[in-house]
């Protein structure tokens, strides 16, 4: 699929592990919850693509540009617009921090929310150890944003 024109394609919830999408046009496509683990994405275009919950483990390199992709109603910005932290809390939740034009957006489990809403939710943990883990993850996301958002 190298160089494929997938502009506007609906690829939500598809498994594309290890697929070669280098130089593919994925702009305006729906990649929500797509499994892109270990895929080749060098030079692929993501402008306007929905990537909420997409799995990129092993697929992101310096040559992959996600800026311009969309999460919720926000556009990703910066050189490295996402960071994953997990497994956190009682459910071993993976947290994804997205750097967007509207600030940091957080994916916790299956829910996308603002960083402040995520912090409020984490404070409701009955086990203070889990609340501390969440707060450490949020601090790491903020540090990532300070380094890479510009």
Characteristics:
6 strands; single chain; elongated; Pectate Lyase C-like; 150 residues; 4-stranded antiparallel sheet; 20% helix; two-stranded antiparallel sheet; 2 domains; alpha+beta; 19% strand
Q: How does this structure look, described?
A:
The chain folds into 2 domains: 1-65, 3 Solenoid (Pectate Lyase C-like); 82-148, no CATH class. Helix content is 20%, strand content 19%. The protein contains 2 helices and 6 strands, in the order E-E-E-E-E-E-H-H. The strands form 2 sheets. The chain has a 4-stranded antiparallel sheet with strand order 3-4-5-6. Strands 1-2 form a two-stranded antiparallel ribbon. A hairpin with a 2-residue loop joins strand 5 and strand 6 (111-114). Helix 1 packs antiparallel against helix 2 (128-148).
Distance between the termini: 32 Å
Please indicate the count of domains. Answer: 2
Helix content class: 10-25%
- What are the segments in which pLDDT stays under 50 over at least 5 consecutive residues? none
| Main sheet characteristics | 4 strands, antiparallel
Q: SSE order in H/E notation?
A: EEEEEEHH
Give the strand line-up of the largest sheet: 3-4-5-6
Shape: elongated
Q: Which structural class best describes the helix and strand composition? A: alpha+beta
Radius of gyration: 15 Å
Number of strands: 6
Number of continuous helical runs: 2
Strand content: 15-25%
Could you tell me the mean pLDDT?
Answer: 90
What's this entry about, in short?
The protein is an alpha+beta fold and 150 residues long.
Write the layout of secondary structure elements.
Elements: E1 70-71, E2 74-75, E3 82-88, E4 93-100, E5 103-108, E6 111-114, H1 115-123, H2 128-148
């Amino acid at each position: 699929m190298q160089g494929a024109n997938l502009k506007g394609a609906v690829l939500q919830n598809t498994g594309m592990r290890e697929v070669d999408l280098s130089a593919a046009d994925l702009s305006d496509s729906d990649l929500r919850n797509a499994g892109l683990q270990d895929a080749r994405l060098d030079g692929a275009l993501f402008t306007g693509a929905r990537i909420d919950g997409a799995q990129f483990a092993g697929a992101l390199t310096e040559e992959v540009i996600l800026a311009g992709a969309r999460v919720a109603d926000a556009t990703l910005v910066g050189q490295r617009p996402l960071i994953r932290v997990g497994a956190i809390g009682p459910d071993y939740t993976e947290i994804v921090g997205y750097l967007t034009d509207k600030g940091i957006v957080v994916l916790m489990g299956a829910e996308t929310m603002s960083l402040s809403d995520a912090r409020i939710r984490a404070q409701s943990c009955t086990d203070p150890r889990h609340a501390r883990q969440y707060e450490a993850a949020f601090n790491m996301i903020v540090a990532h944003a300070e380094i890479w958002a510009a």
